[in-house]
TrEMBL record:
Record protein name field: Bet v I/Major latex protein domain-containing protein
A UniProt-annotated Pfam family: Bet_v_1
Record-annotated Bet v I/Major latex protein domain positions: 3-118
InterPro entries according to UniProt: Bet_v_I/MLP, MLP-like_ligand-binding, START-like_dom_sf
Domain of life: Eukaryota
Biological processes per GO annotation: defense response
Gene3D superfamilies, alphabetized: 3.30.530.20
Amino acid sequence: MSPGNIKGVDLHEGEWGTVGSVIVWDYFHDGKPKVAKEVIEAIDEEKKSVCFKVIGGDLLEAYTKFLITVHVDTNGEENVVTVTFHYEKVNENIEDPESFMEFCLNVNKDIETHHLPKTN
């Protein structure tokens, strides 16, 4: 769905879509191949949200803690996706993860394009 951004996603532990599952993402960010190992910390089906904790990979070179929460608001046939980062920098010289947020937005746009009905 986002081949220019995501190279691959593998389940390393647990079952897809369950709390405690460990997922490894191979992706391209800022023109470089990167890896992120995440554990699903929480799923709230009623609120349509999932929280991932980064436990390995490139993000932890700059951040001692990195949580990603994805929340979907549904209004009829429209869905609004909100991605929130909670992070701690390894030091004050590290930039905020704005380019990673842009990356996430681009992936979401690709997913949206993939799921939109094709018109002739």
